[in-house]
Give the backbone structure.
Amino acid sequence: MGKPNQPKDIKPKAEGEEGGAKAKVQIDENVKVIIINLLTTVLICTLFLSVSYILMSNLLDSKLAHRMPAGDEATADTSGEDTSSEEMQHGFILDLGDFILNLSDVSPRKYLKVNVALEVSTRPEDTEAAPKAEGGHGGHGGESAPAVSPLETEMAQFKPAIRDAIITTLSSKTAAELSTTAGKELAKEQISEAVNGIFAGERDVLRVSFGQFIIQ
């Protein structure tokens, strides 16, 4: 009597299940290793960045603390330079008197009354004392006439052209334009440019000032 044949696929099936279990265990171990390595790397990076931040902050604070006194001295020196520069820019005040003129408004008609003065640059020779004019008759004692400096004589020659330039500039404006601070500053710049053109490089207008300023 022959022996019954055993199923041929029983042993391969057991080996397949065992191999799958081993592969699964191996994958789980690999995942754990990857996770551990990742967490370790993140922890190290975080620790490194924290230490670097603390060191850089301390270094920056130390540099700022050392530089603050030098910065104060530089500010003081700069302010001193600005002050001396402003003092050097003071010039001769040319008072052009009052102007009464029509503005460009048509309806209703507007008028402007303004006092204008210019501050004009000077040269070293302008500070030389002018010779005093002798007064009296026949050599007898008398009051001497006030001295007139060469700069005042020069400015007197320019005055008619300067007044004409100012009238031309201001009369081209409307009351609305001259009622604002920006409009007044623009008019001053335009007057300065026009007068500098009259001086043709011999003098410079440092500032334009408006005294009485009435629009009616």
Notes: Confidence is low (pLDDT under 50) at residues 69-86. Strands lie at 92-102, 111-120, 205-215. The helical segments are 10-88, 150-171, 175-178, 181-199.
